[in-house]
Amino acid sequence: MSQIIKQVKEHFNGEEEDPSDFKDLSKEEEKESEESRKPTSNQIRFFEKIGNFRDIGLNFNSDSGTKRFKEGVLFRSATLDFASEEDLKNLIDKFHLKSIIDLRAENEIKSTEGLANAFPSAVLNKGMAISAIQSLMSNQSESDSKGERKRRIRTRRRIKSIKNEVENSKNHEHSTYYINFASNNYRRRFVWDPLSLSEKYQVAKLMATSHKADAIKLVGQVIINPQGLEGLYRGFIDYCGEEIVEAIQIMASPDSYPLLVHCTQGKDRTGIVCAMVLGLCGASEEMILKDYSRSEEGLREIKEDMIKEMASDGLGPQFTEAPKEIMKKTLDYVNEKYGGIEEYLRSHGMQERDKLNLLSHLLSELDEETEEKLREMSEDSGSNDSSTSEEDNEKGEKRGWRARREKKREERAKIQ
Q1: Is residue 188 classed as helix, strand or coil in its secondary structure?
Q2: Quick check: 241 and 347 in contact, CB under 8 A?
Q3: Nearest-angstrom CA–CA distance, 310 and 128
Q4: Among residues 206, 67, 72, which one has the least CA distance to residue 133?
Q5: CA-to-CA distance for 231 and 303, rounded, in angstroms?
Q6: How far out from the chain centre does Cα 266 lie?
Q7: pTM recorded for the entire structure
């Protein structure tokens, strides 16, 4: 069991202090407080029951030997469902966490009492890759518990402004944004459509006779396992672009930080989002692969359990791994099919202001061109910031919609 980090608070002993001494002490304490926000490289050991946790900026700087990224700002992890009270205390008191982006499906989310008191979250029902299938088979979703401060981003719907969601969260000390990463589009196009007519009948029959586990295993064996992690990630890229951009738009708000993004194991859905963010910030492919592959070590202690779980869902051991070559092939796929990470994100609704704001929040220093664009954007916004933001998001949605429409036309032409 990992050792709990104890918070040390200094108290004055009641004696009258000299003002100059008090000033020096304040500076000292301020410096110590700032340092305490920066986790060490052994950050996984900070928690008893939160796995695969890491500071993205800290690891980037450590790997690159630079100070390019801000530290103590953007984190990633596996589920928070089983976090102990001390774990949650550390997230708030040591890491000063304000926002969480939860990328799991609605049917995965069941808040536990301890977690709901700090951050609303969810519980894993089945393996990550199969959770999408479960949602496909059921239109029921967990209703929000009374008193919980949930900020659910309803995917596959028109969203006027992510900024408004973030603005609403200012009323709360801590907020969670739920993004159904594997949304209806993904479940239908990647999971359901490829099934043959007879396979669809088998799955429907199993579900109707309360044999959901068998239905899940069948789909896993027939659709997901043959494609492997590479195919799974390509499905994410092709059908989850809007959800990825929604996460980035939340990250573009200064009111969201410090922020943690997670899914179930913090490897696949989280890995894709973090790879996009790093790429948008100018990180090299090598650095993106290093960040992704850290999940191998982050999940090592539960790997045997993951293998058993995946087997029960019709999936092989490869779905518990995080090999660099898989992420490299995914990045190659994005470059070849979409022209690169930024082009991919723009085609799904990301605006220039989203990118500029993200860079300003995550990078320690900005180049002159980016700073000039930020100044121009700030001057142009003025009192019309809210309306401009809505207009930009509306335009982004239209561009994303046009891109999808053209893609559908191309697919129909190929079939004909």
Answers
A1: helix
A2: yes
A3: 9
A4: 206
A5: 21
A6: 8
A7: 0.73
Cα–Cα distance, 324 to 292 (Å, whole number)? 7
Residue 175 β-bridge partners: 99
Rounded to an integer, what distance in angstroms lies between the CA atom of residue 135 and that of residue 122? Answer: 14
For each of the chain's 416 residues, which pLDDT tens digit applies?
333 233 323 332 333 444 444 344 444 444 444 444 444 444 546 788 899 999 999 999 999 999 999 999 999 999 988 888 899 889 999 999 999 999 998 767 655 666 666 665 332 223 333 333 344 444 333 333 333 334 444 333 333 444 555 555 455 577 888 899 998 899 999 999 999 999 999 999 999 999 989 999 999 999 999 999 999 999 999 999 999 999 999 999 988 999 999 999 999 999 999 999 999 999 999 999 999 999 999 999 999 999 998 999 999 999 999 999 999 999 999 999 999 999 999 999 999 999 999 999 999 999 999 999 999 888 877 645 545 555 555 555 556 656 666 666 666 565 55
Question: What does the alpha-carbon distance between residue 168 and residue 229 come to, in Å, rounded to a whole number?
Answer: 37
The residue to which tokens 């969810």 are assigned: 122
**Burial zone of 255 (CB within 10 Å; 0-12 exposed, 13-18 middle, 19+ buried):** middle
